[in-house]
Write a structure and sequence with these properties.
- It is a single chain.
- By secondary structure, this protein is an all-alpha fold.
- The chain has one domain.
- Helix content is 69%, strand content 1%.
- Helix 7 runs parallel beside helix 8.
- The radius of gyration is 22 Å and the shape is globular.
- The chain starts with a helix and ends with a helix.
Length: 421
């Protein structure tokens, strides 16, 4: 009888109807975003093999040419490639052109993002929280920064960002196995997703070994096969991206850079990294520094007896990832925007206005690149980056009394599950 009354509960029926409607809307947005792509950027099926170009490798994989795939491997894991293979194979079978084939691959990457956005929407109850979740979905799928990632040939950036956020939320909900799988998938999509390791471990203090084992195993399965199949190709892909010594004026490295005489006069926003550093070594130094900052915040929160907000920590690390890169481009900021939007909608249960402000700051910075001098552009980039970073630091170590109702619901989910077991 109770089961029958539950099935007839109007609130439950409305919730399911809203979940279906949210899923359809999000998937429709994913289709619209895919069809709106007007160029494939770095993704060139018949272009030069490089770490940024997934086109030749993906086409080879779609045709079952594993040897060719290994020799043409891009500098990314298998996650997004596996997801895209059936779509690209269908496109190839029906004679779809290069852009159409790329759009199909974009759709394959966006559909999981859309389903995750629908999941967030379905779990909101108040009108304000529902509106926040819908705006977050729009920022994930339709924002100008996300569109830039798609037109630049990198839909996997959006997939990796959503996977990192989903892994962190799973950990916050007391689902260590799911957290480990999703974190492994994120790292197996793009290597920068290792920024999610510490936040996920912060969220599961009692199951860290399990999470590490699952995430490590999943990531290894998605990263190792191409490397083992053709180590030389992997090395070449790494060198194609990491051997440069150049830095642009948006980077946090710019104040330390120099401008040798051989830099072309037509490149006023380009300098050279200090101490003969190349991009790979600069990123390694920046990553270590970011990790020290994150661990310091975690320990400071523990010393004060306050909880650490794991998803706010992911957002902070995503911001630092942009600042420490010697040559940040607009789509590098897509993961930051996505994580902030998800954090505000899913954890704080509010309109993602910080994400909207972040979008405005990123757009302003890159639109101003053609109008400001190098020093002014760098000052603009660092100014809003430091303001956002300071805000995120304050949220990482906020007291439990400042946590919104959505975060409290997340924190209570494990105990509720245990009560129901």
């Amino acid at each position: 009888m109770s089961a029958l009354s539950h099935r007839r509960n109007p609130a439950v029926s409305f919730g399911r109807l809203f979940a279906v409607a949210g899923g359809l809307l999000a998937c429709g947005a994913a289709v619209f975003a895919s069809l709106s792509v007007q160029g494939s950027g770095d993704y060139q099926v018949h272009g030069a093999v490089s770490g940024d170009n997934a086109g030749p490798a993906l086409l080879a994989l779609a045709h079952g040419q594993l040897g060719t795939f290994a020799s043409h491997q891009p500098l990314m894991g298998l996650s997004s490639l596996i997801i895209r293979v059936p779509f690209v194979a269908v496109g190839s079978a029906i004679g779809a052109g290069g852009l159409t084939g790329y759009r199909l691959g974009v759709l394959a990457c966006l559909l999981p993002c859309a389903l995750f956005a629908a999941w967030v929407m379905a779990r909101r109850s108040s009108p304000g929280a529902v509106a926040g979740a819908m705006l977050a979905a729009a920022l994930i799928l339709l924002s100008p920064v996300s569109s830039n990632a798609l037109s630049s040939g990198h839909p996997e950036e959006l997939l990796a960002a959503v996977a990192v956020a989903a892994a962190t939320l799973a950990a916050m909900r007391g689902r260590p196995a799911w957290a480990g799988v999703l974190l492994g998938v994120a790292i197996g999509t793009k290597e920068w997703a290792v920024i999610g390791v510490l936040p996920v471990l912060v969220a599961v203090p009692e199951r860290r070994r399990l999470v590490c084992a699952i995430a490590g195993g999943t990531a290894l399965l998605l990263l190792a096969p191409p490397v083992l199949a053709d180590p030389h190709a992997f090395s070449a892909a790494s060198r194609s991206l990491g051997n440069t010594h150049l830095v642009n004026a948006i980077s946090g490295w710019w104040p330390l850079s120099s401008r040798p005489a051989d830099i072309p006069a037509g490149a006023p926003l380009v300098g050279v990294l200090p101490a003969s550093l190349d991009k790979s070594s600069a990123l390694a130094i920046g990553f270590i520094a970011s990790l020290v900052v994150a661990i310091g915040l975690w320990r400071a929160a523990a010393a004060r007896g306050v909880r650490t907000d794991p998803l706010a920590l992911v957002a902070l690390l995503a911001l630092l990832r942009c600042l420490i890169d010697p040559g940040p481009v607009e789509y590098y900021y897509a993961p930051l925007l996505i994580v902030v939007a998800i954090w505000e909608a899913a954890v704080l249960g509010r309109l993602p206005m910080v994400a909207v402000c972040t979008l405005a700051a990123v757009s302003l910075t890159f639109r101003a690149a053609g109008h400001l001098g190098a020093a002014e552009l760098n000052a603009l980039s660092l100014a809003w980056g430091l303001i956002l970073g300071g805000y995120l630091v304050s949220q990482v170590v906020r007291s439990s009394s400042a946590v919104g109702p959505a975060a409290l619901a997340l924190a209570q989910a494990p105990s509720c599950a245990a009560d129901n077991a």
